[in-house]
Amino acid sequence: MISLRSVQRTYPTPAGPFPALRGIDLDVAPGESIAIVGRSGSGKSTLLHLLGGIDRPTAGDVNVGGTALGALSTERLATWRGRNVGIVFQFFQLLPTLSVEENVLLAMDFAGVIPAARRRDRAQQLLSRAGVADQARKRPAELSGGQQQRVAVARALANDPPLVLADEPTGNLDSATAREIFALFASLGAEGKTVVIVTHESAEVCGASRTVTLADGAVVA
To answer: By the number of CB atoms within 10 A of the CB, which of 87, 112, 126, 144 ranks highest?
Structure first.
């Protein structure tokens, strides 16, 4: 599902080039759930952004689901991402002026994968699965942090993507709510989706089958 070869990402800074990733090689099988761990600044989020086509590598090859992301134009990359990747962010990234249901619907409207006639029913099904169907008409600000993250997971699943990426999805949640969110991710892996979670937790805690440890932009374990 995921194949990285000699991937580098360097950012320009006033002090000179900063190598966020240094020659990453990584393979992830279809249906596998992995946890990416490491200290702050180790390159975890940068790696996740490359997998989701949010950022591009400075060098090396990123292949996801048989697609070489480096060969896609910016427009085609955005289309690919909308149809193939669901992303859950630490700070939810829900649109505050839309209702919970509208946040999920917008993802479907953008990608055009789900027929229009089915979108509202699917949004309700996903919100029900995430345990927040009763919050569908509310705005994100009216929800707790845990509820907002559940909505973010529902939105990430809107287009039934084969790959789900999560960047510190429980970083702002209490431990009990975090366990519930991780259980939701574990259920996705059980259904055959490939799940990559950037986290400070262990693989056992977040339900992953394997841990990839980064340090100073390189895989060390």
So the answer is: 126
